[in-house]
Design brief:
nine-stranded mixed sheet; Lipase_secreted; 39% helix; AB_hydrolase_fold; triacylglycerol lipase activity
Length: 425
């Protein structure tokens, strides 16, 4: 979930430290700049499709070929299917190398699925024990197969903090989520499906690059990936992997109802709802997307299901309200109720340290829902560190918080004590 009202980094950084009046002025300036940047986004569907095509890489047999060994041998989650080193496909910092992998994972029903991912390796010699690993979970890129970040020249988050990790000496293992890159339906906004994809990407990447990647790893994700990363912490409470060291959840969709149907004063981005309907259909086969989408809401649904990605969705539903897109009483649909229950966050125990970040000016994933979920988690005995960045919108929260994420992550690899601030919530 990105490129939506991306505010000025400099102005918002100042806003967090200035006195109240000056802070308000800086935030207003930042939001004005954010709107100007939003105005630069593709305005029409053809423009959006052309923009996405210019960034796209071809879906090659690397992504689509089956695992032939599965016919004769055993299959398990995290099993590596194939790996290749990228050559000139991506725009990455000098010295950073990129690998792609395909591996076995699980969907929300624990069915075997093939998933793709990419690996970013820092420049320089491999340290003793291998590069420490950040298992990255991306925000909404779309639901079609072509919307995989590894099929984008900039890896989707390249300019929003992702490249800062290898620059800081951290390897990145970044799942696409199954159904993106690989064939099949993407179970969009399902914390189980995305959590599995993150976890098993690490095992497959370590098998692809033995000795180059450390066995130790931390999960980190933004937006859709923020929910996925939190889910990893819940899953690891059961899996008890001793090499898992903690989770960072940034602007996570951890309160799904607040994300899908925010309060009027929270802003919100209703153009995500057709993609939520697609993900619900992928999870619950008997779900009828027409039961929750209006005629206007369904108008671009087939395009998003097969070809269009984030920019297309944004252009297709620009100016539409929730009432324009969603059927009345859509929350009463049994599949929607089941999805909301399955995506509930803040109740299950979490293994290891948890960092939860959000932006006070986020109009895509309202900060109120994130903070409420963090507060609920604390009341349920989950120890976490929570921080809100005043005035920051959705993408700037990811970009501006990256130094804090990296410092916190490096503390985990260094074995430093974790401090919870639940008492402040």
């Amino acid at each position: 979930m990105r490129k939506f009202l991306s505010a000025s980094v400099a102005a918002l950084a100042l806003a967090s430290v200035l006195p109240h009046t000056a802070q308000a002025q800086a935030q207003a300036q930042a939001q004005a700049q954010a709107q100007a940047q939003a105005d630069d986004l593709p305005k029409t569907v053809p423009e959006a499709l052309a923009h996405e095509a210019a960034l796209a890489l071809p879906i090659t047999p690397f992504y689509t070929a089956p695992d032939t060994t599965a016919q004769t041998g055993s299959v398990w989650p995290g099993k590596l299917v194939r790996a290749e080193k990228a050559t000139q496909d991506y725009t990455v910092p000098a010295g950073t190398s990129v690998w792609r992998i395909v591996y076995h994972s699980l969907d929300a029903q624990r069915h075997d699925v093939l998933t793709s991912a990419f690996i970013l390796l820092p420049a320089g010699p491999t340290p003793t024990g291998g590069w420490p690993v950040v298992a990255w979970a991306h925000g909404t890129s779309g639901v079609a197969q072509s919307c995989a970040p590894s099929l984008m020249k900039d890896l989707y988050y390249g300019d929003e903090g992702l490249f800062d990790f290898p620059k800081a000496g951290l390897a990145v293992v970044a799942t696409d989520y199954h159904g993106q890159g690989t064939p099949g339906a993407h179970q969009y906004m399902n914390k189980l499906a995305q959590g599995y994809d993150v976890i098993y990407a690490v095992a497959a990447a370590q098998a692809a690059l033995p000795g180059i990647l450390s066995q130790k790893w931390v999960a980190d994700g933004h937006s859709q990936g923020g929910m996925a990363a939190w889910s990893v912490g819940e899953m690891e409470q059961q899996l008890q992997n001793p090499n898992y060291l903690g989770t960072v959840s940034v602007s996570g969709t951890v309160d799904m109802l607040d994300f899908i149907a925010p309060k009027p004063e929270e802003g919100g981005a209703p153009f995500y709802f057709p993609m939520v309907a697609f993900g619900t259909k992928a999870r619950f086969a008997d779900f009828d997307e027409h039961s929750v989408l209006t005629k206007a809401g369904y108008a671009y649904y087939p395009l998003l299901a097969t070809k269009g990605c984030w920019f297309t969705g944004h252009a297709a539903y620009a100016g539409k309200t929730s009432a324009d897109i969603m059927q009345p009483n859509w929350t009463k649909a049994p599949a929607i109720q089941a999805l909301l229950k399955e995506d509930s966050v803040g109740q299950l125990p979490v293994k290891g340290p948890l960092m939860v970040l959000t932006g006070g000016g986020d109009v895509s994933v309202p900060p109120g829902g994130v903070k409420a979920t963090a507060r609920k988690a604390c009341k349920n005995g989950i120890k976490l560190f929570f921080h809100l960045y005043p005035g920051l919108d959705h993408d700037p929260t990811m970009t501006n918080s990256t130094p804090d994420q990296i410092e916190w992550i490096k503390d985990r690899f260094a074995g430093k004590p974790f401090t919870s601030n639940c008492g402040t919530l």
